[in-house]
Amino acid sequence: MSELATLARPYATAVFKRAKETDTLVNWSKSLAFLSAVISDKEISAVLDNPKVVTDQLSALMLDICQGQIEGESENFLKLLIQNGRLSLAPLIAVQFEQYKADHDGYVDVEVLTAFAFSQDEQKKFSSTLEKTLNKKVHMTVIVDKSLIGGVLVRAGDRVIDGSIRGQLQHMQKALQ
Description:
By secondary structure, the protein is α+β, with helices and mostly antiparallel strands. The chain has two domains: 2-102, Peroxidase, domain 1; 106-176, Glutaredoxin (3-Layer(aba) Sandwich). It has eight helices and four strands. The chain has a four-stranded mixed sheet. Strand 1, helix 7 (120-134) and strand 2 form a beta-alpha-beta unit. The chain is elongated and about 60 Å long. The two termini are 33 Å apart. 19% of the residues are buried.
C-alpha cells in the first residue's frame, strides 16, 4: 500500500499545484472524488484488470462514464493516468489531494473513536480542545466503539492520540512484561 501511495504522490502534488495556480481546488476535489468513486466500482475495476482492454478502449469508456462530471484539465489528467497505466491510483491521488487541500485551507480531518456517544455540547467542547491542540480547524467524525471500554482515540492525519482505557491497559501490560 505504501508503494502505491508513493506512486500516487507526484500526481497528487502536480494536480494540487495546478489547482492552486488556477484557483480550481473545489473543482479538482469534485473531479477526483468522482473519478475515485468510478474506479472503486467492482465492474469498472474488473475492466481495469482485464488485459484484453486496450488503452484506447479504456480511455473512451472512462471519458463516456465521466462525461459531465469532469472536464478540461481533469479530462486530460484522466487520459494521462490511462496512458501511464496509473488509473488504479486515482483513489489514492484523491486522498492525497484532499490532505494537501486541508493543509492549505488550515483544517484537519479528525476521526474520534469513543466508547460512548458525545452530546452536542461535549462534541463542541472536544472539538474546541482539539483545535487548540492541533493548531488547526477541525472537521471531526465521531465513531462509537464499545471495545475502547472508556475514553477516546483520536486520529488526525498521521497523528494518533490514545486516551482510551483499552490503550492504557495495553500500555500497562507492556510495562509489566
